[in-house]
Amino acid sequence: MCGLCGALGQVDWTDRAANPALAGGMRGGLQAERQRMARMVSTVLAAEGLRLSAWQANGYILSNATGKRTVVASLLQVWAEAERMLGRPIDPLAPRVLAAARTL
Fold first, then answer.
1. CA angle centred on 7, ends 16 and 64, rounded to 5°
2. Fewest beta carbons less than 10 Å away: which of 32, 45, 47, 60?
3. Per-residue pLDDT for the chain (104 aa), expressed as one digit of tens each?
4. CA 78 – CA 60 distance, rounded (Å)
5. What are phi and psi of 51, to 5 degrees?
6. Residue 59 in 3-state DSSP?
7. CA distance 64 to 91
8. From residue 66, how far is each of 51, 63, 95, 104 by CA, in Å?
């Protein structure tokens, strides 16, 4: 996805910060929530050599060890793009992925 499409993207149902029905009690607002979610997902993706960071108010940047980057609009799109970047599926039950998830 291009940067402009990411900036103008629709709110995804999984995005707690942008969903008024789910945002009650959220500390720090939209940017803080996106950064918190990006850190958690990045911890798991690190087992696959990937990193996720919050980008603007509407998306995330997924990057690999060689510096390749792509903008994704939602957390749901992160997994499909991560698999495309790796050229293989991510096994959520792989020991290295589970070990990373346990650190959360």
1. 85
2. 32
3. 444 544 545 555 556 555 555 555 555 677 778 888 899 999 999 999 999 999 876 789 999 999 999 999 888 899 999 999 999 999 988 898 888 888 88
4. 8
5. -140, 140
6. strand
7. 17
8. 11, 8, 24, 26
